[in-house]
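Long-time lurker, finally posting.

We've been working with Membrane-anchored ubiquitin-fold protein (Herrania umbratica) and I want a structural starting point before designing mutants. I don't trust myself to interpret raw outputs, so I'm hoping someone here can both generate the structure tokens and explain anything notable. Sequence follows.
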Amino acid sequence: MAEGEKLIELKFRIYDGTDIAHSTYASSMTVSTLKQKIAAEWPQDKTVTPKSINDLKLIHAGKVLENNKTLADSKIMFGDLPVGVITMHVVVQPAIAKNKTAMV
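Top reply, 14 upvotes:
Generated this for you. Predicted structure of Membrane-anchored ubiquitin-fold protein:
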């Protein structure tokens, strides 16, 4: 982490209201890296679990965050809140396999 880099305190709320991966993250961290951490800390007792990071969607302020962007690029507001934790929502949405049907 670079000197003087901004840190953001985040937690992630999954479908049943459970919060996971509460920690402080560097604003230079990519969404993809963040998803890897969330997948690694996913509670094993849940009925819905991600099979890969591509199954996870992170939502902040009503927007789905893009994998290749950093937290800073995603405009996660760390300066607007006086004190506190930013809660992001996590949706598990498995990729839909495209069926190839033969045309007769």
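Before you design anything, note these points.
The first strand starts at residue 7 and ends at 13.
The chain has one helix and five strands.
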